[in-house]
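## retry 2 of 3
previous attempt timed out at serialization; input unchanged, resubmitting
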Amino acid sequence: MSELEQALIGDSAYTPPAHILEGLTQELAHKTPAGAPHSIYEELWHIAFWQQITLEWIAGVERLYPASPRDAFPTVQDAEKEYWGQLCERFLAGNRKAGEAAKDEGRLNVPVRCTSRPDEPVRVMTVREQLESLAAHNGYHFGRIVLLRQLLGAWPPPKGGFDW
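## retry succeeded, writing output
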Protein backbone atom coordinates (compact mmCIF):
# COMPACT_ATOMS: atom_id res chain seq x y z
CA MET A 1 0.00 0.00 0.00
CA SER A 2 1.43 3.38 -0.96
CA GLU A 3 1.85 6.10 1.64
CA LEU A 4 -0.90 8.10 -0.05
CA GLU A 5 -3.32 5.18 0.17
CA GLN A 6 -2.25 4.61 3.80
CA ALA A 7 -2.89 8.29 4.59
CA LEU A 8 -6.40 8.00 3.17
CA ILE A 9 -7.60 4.62 4.47
CA GLY A 10 -4.88 3.07 6.62
CA ASP A 11 -2.95 3.86 9.74
CA SER A 12 -0.20 6.04 8.33
CA ALA A 13 -0.34 8.98 10.74
CA TYR A 14 -3.37 8.11 12.83
CA THR A 15 -5.79 5.30 13.64
CA PRO A 16 -7.60 4.14 10.47
CA PRO A 17 -10.81 6.09 9.84
CA ALA A 18 -12.94 2.93 10.01
CA HIS A 19 -11.61 2.26 13.52
CA ILE A 20 -12.11 5.86 14.65
CA LEU A 21 -15.82 5.58 13.76
CA GLU A 22 -16.28 2.16 15.30
CA GLY A 23 -18.61 1.62 18.25
CA LEU A 24 -20.37 4.99 18.15
CA THR A 25 -24.12 5.14 18.61
CA GLN A 26 -26.50 7.55 16.91
CA GLU A 27 -27.02 9.31 20.24
CA LEU A 28 -23.31 9.71 21.00
CA ALA A 29 -22.49 10.83 17.46
CA HIS A 30 -24.95 13.73 17.82
CA LYS A 31 -23.72 14.96 21.22
CA THR A 32 -21.72 18.18 21.23
CA PRO A 33 -19.49 18.55 24.30
CA ALA A 34 -19.48 21.95 26.02
CA GLY A 35 -17.28 24.37 24.10
CA ALA A 36 -17.04 22.21 20.96
CA PRO A 37 -18.33 23.76 17.74
CA HIS A 38 -19.53 20.51 16.19
CA SER A 39 -20.68 16.99 17.03
CA ILE A 40 -18.97 13.87 15.72
CA TYR A 41 -21.85 13.52 13.24
CA GLU A 42 -21.27 17.03 11.90
CA GLU A 43 -17.52 16.45 11.61
CA LEU A 44 -17.99 13.21 9.66
CA TRP A 45 -20.67 14.75 7.44
CA HIS A 46 -18.21 17.54 6.64
CA ILE A 47 -15.47 15.01 5.83
CA ALA A 48 -17.83 13.04 3.57
CA PHE A 49 -18.95 16.27 1.88
CA TRP A 50 -15.39 17.24 0.88
CA GLN A 51 -14.46 13.67 0.05
CA GLN A 52 -17.33 13.54 -2.46
CA ILE A 53 -16.27 16.83 -4.02
CA THR A 54 -12.70 15.53 -4.33
CA LEU A 55 -13.92 12.33 -5.98
CA GLU A 56 -15.98 14.38 -8.41
CA TRP A 57 -13.10 16.71 -9.23
CA ILE A 58 -10.70 13.84 -9.93
CA ALA A 59 -13.40 12.28 -12.14
CA GLY A 60 -13.55 15.52 -14.15
CA VAL A 61 -16.80 16.87 -12.68
CA GLU A 62 -16.57 20.56 -11.83
CA ARG A 63 -18.72 20.89 -8.74
CA LEU A 64 -19.05 24.37 -7.30
CA TYR A 65 -17.17 25.35 -4.17
CA PRO A 66 -19.49 26.12 -1.21
CA ALA A 67 -20.44 29.78 -0.91
CA SER A 68 -19.65 29.79 2.82
CA PRO A 69 -17.99 27.44 5.33
CA ARG A 70 -21.38 26.69 6.90
CA ASP A 71 -22.53 25.20 3.59
CA ALA A 72 -20.00 22.38 4.09
CA PHE A 73 -21.66 21.22 7.32
CA PRO A 74 -25.05 19.52 7.68
CA THR A 75 -28.30 21.31 8.30
CA VAL A 76 -30.83 19.93 10.77
CA GLN A 77 -32.72 18.53 7.76
CA ASP A 78 -29.57 16.78 6.48
CA ALA A 79 -29.08 15.11 9.87
CA GLU A 80 -32.73 14.03 9.99
CA LYS A 81 -32.49 12.41 6.53
CA GLU A 82 -29.32 10.40 7.16
CA TYR A 83 -28.83 8.29 10.27
CA TRP A 84 -25.38 7.83 11.79
CA GLY A 85 -24.92 4.34 10.32
CA GLN A 86 -25.87 5.55 6.86
CA LEU A 87 -23.43 8.45 7.11
CA CYS A 88 -20.65 6.06 8.16
CA GLU A 89 -21.39 3.78 5.19
CA ARG A 90 -21.46 6.74 2.79
CA PHE A 91 -18.12 7.97 4.11
CA LEU A 92 -16.51 4.50 4.05
CA ALA A 93 -17.69 3.83 0.47
CA GLY A 94 -16.17 7.13 -0.67
CA ASN A 95 -13.06 6.43 1.38
CA ARG A 96 -12.58 3.12 -0.46
CA LYS A 97 -12.94 4.98 -3.78
CA ALA A 98 -10.30 7.50 -2.70
CA GLY A 99 -8.01 4.62 -1.73
CA GLU A 100 -8.56 3.01 -5.13
CA ALA A 101 -7.77 6.31 -6.85
CA ALA A 102 -4.51 6.48 -4.89
CA LYS A 103 -3.56 3.05 -6.30
CA ASP A 104 -4.09 4.17 -9.90
CA GLU A 105 -0.54 5.35 -10.55
CA GLY A 106 -1.33 6.04 -14.21
CA ARG A 107 -3.74 8.82 -13.21
CA LEU A 108 -1.94 10.40 -10.25
CA ASN A 109 -0.21 13.04 -12.38
CA VAL A 110 -3.27 13.90 -14.47
CA PRO A 111 -4.27 17.55 -14.00
CA VAL A 112 -7.83 18.25 -12.86
CA ARG A 113 -9.77 21.47 -12.51
CA CYS A 114 -10.90 22.26 -8.97
CA THR A 115 -13.26 25.12 -8.40
CA SER A 116 -12.21 27.67 -5.81
CA ARG A 117 -13.78 29.91 -3.24
CA PRO A 118 -16.14 32.50 -4.72
CA ASP A 119 -14.32 35.25 -6.61
CA GLU A 120 -11.08 33.23 -6.88
CA PRO A 121 -9.78 31.62 -10.08
CA VAL A 122 -10.24 27.92 -10.77
CA ARG A 123 -7.25 25.88 -9.58
CA VAL A 124 -5.59 23.10 -11.51
CA MET A 125 -4.12 20.31 -9.41
CA THR A 126 -3.01 16.79 -10.16
CA VAL A 127 -5.08 13.86 -8.95
CA ARG A 128 -2.23 13.14 -6.49
CA GLU A 129 -2.32 16.70 -5.12
CA GLN A 130 -6.07 16.57 -4.70
CA LEU A 131 -5.83 13.23 -2.86
CA GLU A 132 -3.02 14.57 -0.68
CA SER A 133 -5.21 17.54 0.18
CA LEU A 134 -8.07 15.17 1.03
CA ALA A 135 -5.80 13.06 3.25
CA ALA A 136 -4.63 16.17 5.13
CA HIS A 137 -8.21 17.44 5.48
CA ASN A 138 -9.45 14.07 6.73
CA GLY A 139 -6.55 13.80 9.18
CA TYR A 140 -7.40 17.19 10.66
CA HIS A 141 -11.09 16.40 11.11
CA PHE A 142 -10.52 12.83 12.32
CA GLY A 143 -8.24 14.32 14.97
CA ARG A 144 -11.19 16.43 16.04
CA ILE A 145 -13.42 13.33 16.11
CA VAL A 146 -10.89 11.54 18.33
CA LEU A 147 -10.84 14.52 20.70
CA LEU A 148 -14.65 14.61 20.76
CA ARG A 149 -14.70 10.89 21.55
CA GLN A 150 -12.20 11.47 24.35
CA LEU A 151 -14.31 14.29 25.77
CA LEU A 152 -17.38 12.04 25.60
CA GLY A 153 -15.55 9.16 27.32
CA ALA A 154 -15.80 6.99 24.20
CA TRP A 155 -12.12 6.50 23.33
CA PRO A 156 -10.47 4.20 22.38
CA PRO A 157 -12.77 2.40 19.95
CA PRO A 158 -13.21 -1.40 20.17
CA LYS A 159 -10.29 -2.13 17.79
CA GLY A 160 -8.08 0.31 19.68
CA GLY A 161 -6.46 3.57 18.78
CA PHE A 162 -3.63 5.84 19.76
CA ASP A 163 -4.16 7.38 23.18
CA TRP A 164 -1.33 9.90 23.22
